[in-house]
Design a protein that fits this description.
Beta Polymerase, domain 2; five-stranded mixed β-sheet; 8 helices
């Protein structure tokens, strides 16, 4: 987690001030932690192989890459919205990052990307580590399966070959796999 906090501090140093909003108030850059990086910040994991981040395009992405290179940290810049259509309300479901990780300072807000969007993105990729990461969101109560299924029904008609490198039927199959894994885990806990 020290690497993540150091990266965020370095991003703050690399960022130029955010342009003012139309109403004249000062703007704020946003940096989002994604998937395993959120787990790291919440102390659900001790380490990750790479730091997955998203945020405002342009200046924040440049600052993250510069900070990652300076600190020699493996950084991946990819928003779930680059791969899947985001469900309605994604921005409002972003969660605060603990202050000891996010650091302090004006101009940069550090948040966890909407967990529901992240889980849908993980299912779309569908590798075993992705299912493990998705299950952690369910275990921790950051994602509820019924709400996830509702949001999936909302976004599935918007899937195209341009936003998802697989057909919707393949995505449904992968989603059923997540649902079965979670049901098996819940059943196992009941009998433990």
């Amino acid at each position: 987690m020290a690497d993540l906090a150091a990266l965020i501090a370095a991003v703050r140093r690399h960022l130029t001030p955010c342009p003012p909003l139309p109403d004249g108030r000062g703007g704020t850059w946003r940096l989002y932690l994604v998937a395993g990086t959120s787990h790291l910040a919440q102390r659900w994991r001790e380490r990750v192989s790479r730091l997955e981040l998203a945020g405002n395009p342009g200046a924040v992405a440049v600052a993250v890459r510069a900070a990652g290179a300076a600190l020699e940290l493996p950084v991946v810049w990819e928003s779930p919205g680059d791969v899947i259509p985001l469900p309605a309300g994604a921005a409002e479901r972003a969660r605060p990052v603990p202050p000891e990780v996010a650091g302090a300072g004006d101009g940069l807000e550090v948040l966890h990307f909407d967990p529901y969007s992240v889980v849908l993105r993980l299912v779309a990729r569908g590798d075993e580590p992705d299912y493990v990461a998705a299950l952690e969101y369910l275990r921790r109560g950051w994602v509820e399966l019924a709400r996830l299924e509702t949001l999936l029904a909302d976004v599935l008609p918007r899937f195209t070959n341009e936003t998802l490198a697989q057909d919707p039927a393949e995505f449904r199959r992968k989603f059923r796999g997540l649902r079965q894994l979670y049901a098996s885990e819940v059943e196992h806990q009941r009998h433990a």
